[in-house]
Description:
The protein has helices spanning 2-23, 33-51, 55-63, 68-74, 80-100. It is mainly alpha-helical. The protein has one domain (2-119). Helix 2 packs antiparallel against helix 3 (55-63) and helix 3 packs antiparallel against helix 4 (68-74). It is globular and about 35 Å long.
Amino acid sequence: MNKKITGVAIFTIAILAMGVFAFQGAGRFQIDEETLAQMEETRTNIEEAIENADFETWKNLVEETPMGDKMLEKITEDNFPTLVELHNKMKEVKELREELGIEMPMGKMGKGMKNGFHRGKMNPFE
């Protein structure tokens, strides 16, 4: 069950970051600034709902995302506290990585594949 929730959390981050990738012209996605602003607002609201452990708000926001139905198949009101816990631990890990000056292998979220695997950046210490 925890592996499924971890996968969904990573999937959630990927979906929410897709707007940033699209704006940067990565791949075939191109969106205007208004759409990007709406996506960023949704991402922020989803993150706040998780941080506030507010399942109903989170669910309503996620339902409006492109892959919301898939997420809602995995995350229920019963296991939502585990997603909250995972989110909090991921924030803690991010803070510790930043303290040590270590990036994720794919580069910082928001830079996406621009600085990721396709450029050969696999060393988190670069």
